[in-house]
């Protein structure tokens, strides 16, 4: 009988799951979120009028870098060789930037945490770059919207 996948060792202590016995499959995860802000802040982002530079460009790079470093940020996450990370940021009138991260690999464990981390760090980067003019920004609705691959199959958020 196969050993159960668990985050606990024989003594009940937290441990990284041993995925060595799992089959490698193509895995993909998509996460989404948004940053809500004052309409004037969104307009300044669109016009490139934020003093710290290209907000969406920097947030995109920050999200990609964060996905690659998820195992350094989240305890017990496996370090993964990601084959793709894409972070898309879309200004939505009158007052938000929507963020979508897609992460994929062929491996033994999923990439949900990497996609969620990419969205979260991209959102935090937007906040950081704009906080001098809008401290009331809100990061909202960070969630997994799609997951495929692995034993548990496909997940699609409603």
From TrEMBL:
Ranges where the Molybdopterin cofactor biosynthesis C (MoaC) domain occurs: 16-150
Keyword annotations from UniProtKB, A to Z: Lyase, Molybdenum cofactor biosynthesis
Broad EC category: lyase
Function: Catalyzes the conversion of (8S)-3',8-cyclo-7,8-dihydroguanosine 5'-triphosphate to cyclic pyranopterin monophosphate (cPMP).
Species for this entry: Paeniroseomonas aquatica
Pfam families named among the record's database cross-references: MoaC (PF01967)
Family the UniProt entry places it in: Belongs to the MoaC family.
Molecular function terms, GO-annotated: cyclic pyranopterin monophosphate synthase activity
Assembly: Homohexamer; trimer of dimers.
Residues reported in the UniProt entry to bind substrate: 76-78, 113-114
Pathway(s) served: Cofactor biosynthesis; molybdopterin biosynthesis
Protein name: Cyclic pyranopterin monophosphate synthase
InterPro entries: MoaC (IPR023045), MoaC_bact/euk (IPR047594), MoaC_sf (IPR036522), MoCo_biosynth_MoaA/MoaC (IPR050105), Mopterin_CF_biosynth-C_dom (IPR002820)
Catalysis performed (reactions): (8S)-3',8-cyclo-7,8-dihydroguanosine 5'-triphosphate = cyclic pyranopterin phosphate + diphosphate
Active site: 128
Enzyme Commission (EC) number: 4.6.1.17
């Amino acid at each position: 009988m196969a050993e159960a996948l668990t985050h606990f060792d024989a003594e009940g202590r937290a441990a990284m799951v041993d995925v060595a016995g799992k089959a490698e499959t193509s895995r993909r995860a998509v996460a989404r979120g948004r940053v809500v802000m004052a309409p004037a802040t969104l307009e300044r982002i669109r016009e490139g009028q934020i003093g710290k530079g290209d907000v969406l460009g920097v947030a995109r790079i920050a999200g990609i870098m964060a996905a690659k470093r998820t195992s350094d940020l989240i305890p017990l996450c496996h370090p993964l060789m990601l084959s793709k990370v894409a972070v898309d940021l879309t200004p939505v009138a009158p007052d938000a930037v929507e963020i979508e991260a897609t992460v994929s690999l062929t491996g033994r464990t999923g990439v949900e945490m990497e996609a969620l981390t990419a969205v979260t760090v991209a959102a935090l980067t937007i906040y950081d770059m704009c906080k001098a003019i809008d401290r009331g920004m809100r990061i909202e609705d960070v969630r997994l919207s799609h997951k495929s691959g692995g034993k548990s199959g496909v997940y699609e958020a409603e």
